[in-house]
Amino acid sequence: MSDKKRFDYVFCDLDGTLLEDKQRHYECYKAIVNKYGGNCIPPDEYWNDKRDKVKRTVLLEKSGFQGTYDDYLSEWLALIETPEFLKYETLKPDTLSFLEWLGDNSEHIVLTTQRRNRENLLSQLEKLGISGYFEEVASGDNKPDILDGKYNKDSLVIGDTEADEETAERLGCTFIAVTSGLRNEKYLAADRKITALKELYESGN
User: Fold this and answer.
1) Of 15, 135, 141, 195, which one is least surrounded by beta carbons within 10 A?
2) What is the pTM of this model?
């Protein structure tokens, strides 16, 4: 009798998929606006605008930002992956149960993220207690050769943005979109859409 698991490779995104990322984004935005001058829009308005792909220039205009766009972008890139702001990220309520389920049902689990600061990333994964679930961590330009392969529909990409959708298309994997993350559902084309990870392990599908 075959003991082959249900999924071959699962490529899972981090921010907005496994981690709740709203406060990190807002606190970084707020710190920059406060530094240069302006009036921060409320957290819910900021996050809804981000999810609806409102351009950063529009967000800054709404905030009365006193610096330049380049000022903001430079500060954002310098700050967003530092421990000062990573501390605002938390595991989504169903993340640990989801990762346990993936471990029981997948041959290989690879974490994929656009993060550039690998040292801070790996440290955060350790602190959150989830580093041991992943066979590999593919971040920024540090992408393993495994992402150059071609996979079948027994492999999954699970994520919350167009970048994850593009990864699934390039690899030939099924794409499952988590619509409670960084991007509004209407911008994601997926084989399946879910609002929470528990929809996968509770349904068994």
Assistant:
1) 141
2) 0.93
